[in-house]
Fold each of these.
Amino acid sequence: MTLLWIALLPLLGVLVPALTAQRGRGFCSLATAVLPATALVMTLLNVPALLDGEQLRFSAAWMPELALNLAFRLDGLSLLFNLLILGIGLLIILYAHYYLAKDEPYGRFYAFLMLFMASMVGISMSDNLILLWLFWELTSLSSFLLIGFWSYRSDARKGARMALTVTGAGGLALLAGLLLLGDMAGSFNMGDVLASGDVILADPRYPIMLGLVLLGAFTKSAQFPFHFWLPHAMAAPTPVSAYLHSATMVKAGIFLMARLHPAIAGSELWSVVVSLVGIVTMLYGAWFALMKTDLKGILAFSTVSHLGLITVLLGIGSPMAILAALFHILNHATFKAALFMSAGIIDHETGTRELKQLGGLKKAMPVTALLTTLAAAAMAGVPLFNGFLSKEMFFTEALATPVLGGLSWLLPALAALGGILSVAYSVRLVHAVFFKPAREAPPKSPHEPPHLMRLPVEILVVLCVVVGLFPAFMATGLLELASQAVIGSPLDFHLAIWHGVNLPLIMSLLAFAVGIALYWRHADLRRFTQQFAGVDARRVFERILVAMGYRAEQLIAGLEGNSLQRYMGWLWLGALVMGGVGLVQITDLTGAAGNQELDGILLLGAGMLMFGGIATAATHRYRLISLLMLSVVGLFVALTFARFSAPDLALTQLSVEVVTMILLMLALFFLPQKTPRESSPLRNIRDMLLAGSLGLVIASLNYAVMTRDTLSISSFFMENSKPGGGGYNVVNVILVDFRGFDTLGEITVLAIAGLAIFKLLNRLRLFIPHSDGEGRVWSPDRYPAILTSISMTLLPLALLVSAFIFLRGHNEPGGGFIAGLITAVALILLYMARGVAWAQERLNFPFQPVAVIGVAIATLTGLGSWLLGYPFLTSAFGYFTLPLIGTFELATALLFDLGVYLAVVGATLMILANLGKVTTAHRPVTEASEKDAEASAATPSAKEPR
Amino acid sequence: MELLYAMTTGVLTACGLYLTLRGRTFPVVVGLTLLSYAVNLFLFSMGGLTTDGAAIVSEGTGYADPLPQALVLTAIVIGFAMTAFVVILAMRARSEVGNDHVDGKKEDRE
């Protein structure tokens, strides 16, 4: 359980600054530090168990269907990273307490920092590939927030965006790679994956998987050619740079390569790709570190270089190389975090990070000068510092490796070159800032920072020295655990300062001599490089982004160009291709079941349907005729349902047909009566061909399905309808009981559509035509007497029928949907026959609440079963006997159906009655638009433009 | 019988699709309605075509498949809600833009 807490505590810590920011900065900083400190202590408490060789694992099912488990592990590698992440994180909190200006939102800063810390701890401890990826993405997001913390600065925004784009794209590649990896290993559990290295190496998909995973690792760890985001991320506040860009986030890629080492390393491909990329990165970064004039820029490129070094070691992959890599991860984190924090102190106290404005700071800041010099010495690899030890190990491994075969001398040569450059830029950093006289005065007169701000640097520098002096005592235990986690078996090694005079030592000495000489001739070097036009990575990156956006826009414009017709054309073409491909794959269009017999009535019905459809399309320019033809189709569809044993459908279709026609007629009143001829004949033929071929595909598919015997799950519903749902009408029981949740969703959609239409009609200004399409003035007799009297007579009758249909719905064709539609139609008829004003007086209530109450009743019925301890929407029913009436059934499904009924009535009336009211004084207006309406009432409605 | 039914579905689909490719809102709405008839017929037929076998328990044997029927029943009602929404959107677009073209662009008024 403690494992879960170690992972969760930093995540909970995100809330702490948010809650305590009001209490002042000191309190907030302290409170923020509590949870990570606890997590650190808990990590340390697990060390004895780890030393005993215990397997520390935690696992809880999260989404087992997706192979995603909340699984954590604590092994040596996680321990090493947890110490770095939590330990340096605590120092960073202390440092940031002094670094941020008074008026800056420190609460937000701490919250982002904790989010980042939590995601890093998550990566380090994940025991599941997908969980690891999840935390990986969380680091990308939280680092975006941290880099862009000073969001008012353009370079911060651009740097943050660049980091997110590069690492986010890498993250997607990584997801693909990890999914492949899990598939190859047959499990997403880290332990299983690490154990199946042989299977993975033998898999033909190995190169693809490796490429994708490495893409993720290289983008995260700023390896060439993806390194360019890191220098631009220096726009972040310095605590962020010290934390993310030296100790933690950029190490995530390295961590991933180390973590997955047993599973994916061990091939020729791995060694060559990883060590080559590493060596190029190392040299490239070192060279630019020597050329930069910005303090943080130098550190950023030197970080790139050191990350390259670690990558080379992982590429070499021998046990001792792994050990050296792990050791250098530790060493680099300590000296580079110290250097970043010193740079931040210098920036903070002088107001600049430009080398030419700095110089001679030794006098003003003696302690900082000493600390920085010591940390830089560690970076350069001076003996008696920790950097020396890991660098010697690097040289040894570079000399010993067989990678690159006959060219294997290349690696030590390049490694020595890297050493030279590293010495040169370290010397330059220290000398130019503290010893060389300044050429220009800095903006602020420098002095030492508050002591506590320097404390984190002091702690880290002391670590550099102590580890350098007593490596065996300080680092052996930790490295034993960590290397065992990566290699799989205990490694016998001995860390010592003195190995005698050997080739690596000579390489080191050479590096010092040439490096110092290189710095001495630095001016010539700079003059030499200035001949070449520099490439600004940010410009290139942004130009690529803009060009991609432009191309995408052009492509879209070329394909559809904001035209709905072309858009639909592509959609149907896509459907045609997909459907066609499906059809080609079946061998025989007519299935085994064959055709049933035809009769004359069927022929007539099909003929009428086809005629109606074709006529609707053919007469579409004469809209009223087209609409009448459409109603023919609707009626015959209802008859088709009736013919093929679906009485419920027939009733529904019939009543919906009535409502739809009234709606479309009303709408047509406000729209042009005719469509102008605008499609060219060519376009018409093209559209007909497209529609016709898709129609053929649909017909073939339909025929192919109907003539085959299908396996249906319906027997379940038929058998359980009576015993389980208490109704004989299976369709209705499915609607209100078996699939009640679907129905609830559907009436909700219906109610929302009604509300949306109500809002759309609000303040709608319409052209009200004074005559029909042929120019005939509307009849003055607006409410014909016959219709009026019939509608009055029909109303109670229709309501009675709808009540009857509603009540019998559970056992006979009928139910809430149909009854609701019948009621709505009866009321609409009243509106049509007597006019809105007359109906409004008698039906003076808003319809929106009716629909909402309907949905509410249905939902509450469902919730009621919760109260009784059953799942949502479980129905209950029973039989009761009353004198005179006899035995009858009461079911909760009836209550649910009542909700359906009300929702249908409310939504339908909301749509139709409100549309009808648009032309009258009763039109829907909100309070805000009331004035507007009054204003427009003064001016008569606009006339039809044509 | 199945062949005839499938042909009907196909013809209705084709006519509906043709109308959705028109350039004015009203024919597109009519086309969508036509298309929804075709889709409903198609879905309905997935349970096979049964004569005299309404899915009401204890009316003999050879019932029609009730599941597609339940699905189509709600589809009909939702289809109506969507038609209503689209047609009123079209009215609104006409009142805002001044024409009933589907692309919703304002006409250049001379």
Amino acid sequence: MVYHNLKALIKGIRSCKTVADERALIQQESAAIRASFREEDSFQRHNNIAKLLYIHMLGSPAHFGQIECLKLVASPRFSDKRLGYLGIMLLLDENQEVLTLVTNSLKNDMNHSNMYAVGLALCTFANIASEEMSRDLANEIEKLLGSSNTYIRKKAALCALRVVKKVPDIADHFTAKAKNLLTDRNHGVLLTAITLVTEMCQIDTPILDEFRTAVPLLVRNLKSLVTTGYSPEHDVSGITDPFLQVKILRLLRMLGKGDEQASETMNDILAQVATNTDSSKNVGNSILYETVLTVLEIEADTGLRVMAINILGKFLSNKDKNIRYVALNTLNKVVSMDTNAVQRHRNIILDCLRDGDISIRRRALELSYALINEQNVRILIRELLAFLEVADDEFKLGLTTQICLAAERFAPNKRWHIDTVLRVLKLAGNFVREEILSAFIRLVAHTPELQAYTASKLYLALKADISQESLTLAATWILGEYSEIIVQGGVVDDDQTVMISDKDLIDLVLSILDSPYANYLIRQFVLAAVTKIAARTTTSVPEQDRIAEILAKYTTSPELELQQRAVEFASLFTLGETRIGVLEQMPPPELKATVMGVVSENKPVGSTKGKEADLLGDEVLSTPAVGSAPQPAASAQSNQDLLAEIFGSSTSSPPPAQQQRSTVDDIMGLFGTTSAPGIQTPHPNAIPSSYPSTPASSFPTTAAAARAMSPPQPATATAPPQQRLTAYPAYEKNDLKITLTPQTSAAKPGVVMILARFQVSGGEAATGLSFQAAVPKSQQLQMLPMSNPNINPGAVETQQMRVVAPVGSNVRLRLRIAYSIAGQNFQEQVDFSGFPPGLTGTAS
Amino acid sequence: MAINYFLLVSRQGKLRLAKWFVTLSSKSKAKIVQEVSQLALNRRPRMCNFLEYKDRQIVYRRYASLLFICEIHEKDNELIALELMHRYVEVLDQYFGNVCEMDLIFNFQKAYAILDELIIGGEIQESSIATVLRTTQASDIWEENDDLKAAIQDAALA
């Protein structure tokens, strides 16, 4: 049915039960309106447009009504004009061709005998006029600025604003008229005139200078608003026309900026507004806020400035959140001009970090970054770290970056700097930029005095939590690099030095591989780290063998980078003395001249790899020619190594050129001829040699490092047995093996991350594997997609799950597994409850 | 003080009025209406009346079942924007006499007409409630006179 008028249509649409019904009705009605337009039914036009505009608001297309609106506007009836102009404002904008057809109607109506018709035309013009239309009608507008009717004058002023915005070069056209308007007694006209003048001053400096003469006039206007008593027409909660006051203050700001004399003229009135405005309501504060902005931007005297900053300080402690928000926002703009004044409110600003409203937290955070300096860096970073602990995820990346940058810039000492970054890594290790991580590693490499300290801290942190990616990466790298320091010096936990064995350290680093958080990058870091650890004199032969085994396992890894590293590292193992040289501690990377943690080309990890690749390349080339001249470019030391290696591997007898203490042990160890397994007693000289470029005076000062200087103690495993990540078999049939590795974090009891691994033991690939799991109702399960549903022989595919279970309960899973091997389809269901109890923490 | 757009949205997220003072494609308008009203509707009571949408400053305020939303320029006074919004609500209230959402649905043209008397091109043009009311009602009378004239004409013809 077709609705005869707007009211009926609205009722019809509102009575629709479903969205589909509503859409069908609108479509039908649209079609009817279109048909009616085609019949040129001028009696129905008004009704049709009204209905169409309603449909348009509901989101349906209505462009076909544009021309009909033009026809309505041309009608002599006022009601037609009113609706027609509304339609034009809603359906047209400055970019549409049809708009040019409106120009003529606008021009006619601007000269209409009915002031309300003139008003409609002016309103439409001010809202949607294009550049072309602005040029065409600029003269009409200028004429109407001089109209004797305030209703027309105020609207014409905003039309002039549109012209000035669209065609800035004819702004001076309006200067004379605009000046007259500033003396107008009507508030509406004054409001719009000031808006126009503000815009004109913004786009043109000569105009701005010209209007400086109006400062005394504006001051008088403002003064009368502030001092006159109650005026019912313009009163808002006891304040006379706050809208006009704000407009005047804003224009004064532009006129006073950079001009001593103008600023001087407005000083008194600004002080008067600042002291006399009632600050108990929003409206008063809106004026105070505008006053503060003006005072801070003009050449105000010091007393006035202090007053302005104090107003903001009062705003900060206001109960109204809107006022606090505005204060933080404004202080953000002020902080670069007058940091000390803002510093005084530091505590309140920091309190705002804990506000329940994210808009306020965001503002407070921006402001606190700007407040950090040498004097308060300790306090502020402590606060920011406390905030980092509870911050919304969306803030974390910015926070970690800002904290680390500020630490780098203002750190009172290196120990504090390292502590700060360590804390960041622990609290938000999954939200750290790569640059920050490499800057940290660079810092540690450059601080030999604190390497033992840092390594010890990272050892403990990694043991407590391996779910923070950047923490894991930093710890893996540093433990790999400085393993001998930590094995010799022990770990300082709660002021107690606990000795750890090489096995403890390697267990910890390898446990990362089994963690569900281990990603591609982390695994690469781990392989490099254990390879380095294996090359240290503090690592016993059985442990070295174990590392060699792990590396061998990865030589078939389907992940290219891992496989390549494993193959390269494994063959390095056969190189004896060369390996020691290659895997020596990295020289500290070059420090970049720039202050901040910019990415350095010498990323520590990257350059390690480059060096190995070079030497391996040499080795491969020279293998066929036994005893050929070594590469001349190589250093003397590595020449010897290379020679030793080449002789060693080709004759399988002790190398003749053995010169160094550890060479024998290492090579014997590698060939399995030594009968001294177990813990090697490191040579005392080994320790100083790990600080090659450090003068004796700057030797380790921390307790742990000091102990490292004393004769080494036998490294007995005094550390508590470490919880290894264990893989539990869940399914093994038809050559398909599935194991589950659970991992928990003490910080989050009840959350168990489980890594499922899929392997085939036969020579056939399993394809189309689907692995589904279910948990009891009391638990929750999330699953990530599988790395690959097809499992090739030798490959290991993985899938991650996360179970949230009540603390103290056992994790039980029902698994449904479907796959096909060698053309045969299998589908099975098994129940798994093989995890040890207490995985979800102990109920307290 | 410059407003980029002014929206009126019901608690269910239905658009009741949309006035655009910046030129945008209908697609981006629809996107803004959807996203900004969701943001504002999701705010809890007693939070501040400001929020950020793509680095733009949004001021919103809730009146019964209706949400009044506007985007203002970065350097604008958020507090006076709230007052302006309230001014509009006051005029609506006096015009309709205890305005409710239904009034605005069935008389959306009037809601636009009143807004046009208060704000033009994103700038406030009149701070007096009485003047806005008076001019809107005067326009209404002109409209009714048209109908009257038409009726007289019809009668004369008949």
